[in-house]
Amino acid sequence: MIGFLRAIVIWAVIGAVAFFVLRIYGRSLRREALEKEWDATPGDGGQAAREAYIERGMEAYEGSLRNRLLVIIFVLPFIVIALLLYLMNYA
């Protein structure tokens, strides 16, 4: 039983690290895309307008499906473990 709990804790730590690394990576990719989008448009709105545009885009990204799907990395292993435990003990 202790070995099982240790495996769960290790799995949770690895999942959390993977989640946060991929979240940071996804945010950096989106921010870079927004910066390139702003630079590609003609006209100059100044640095403040550029930062406001990027911040609005990042707020929209936070609520996007792509960002929310990263939670699967953290939740899916625990769902699989629970399903396996149920099937092995009660099915």
From TrEMBL:
Keywords: Membrane, Transmembrane, Transmembrane helix
Record-annotated membrane-spanning stretches: 6-26, 69-88
Domain of life: Bacteria
Name of this protein: Cation/multidrug efflux pump
Species annotation: Tabrizicola soli
Organism ancestry: Bacteria, Pseudomonadati, Pseudomonadota, Alphaproteobacteria, Rhodobacterales
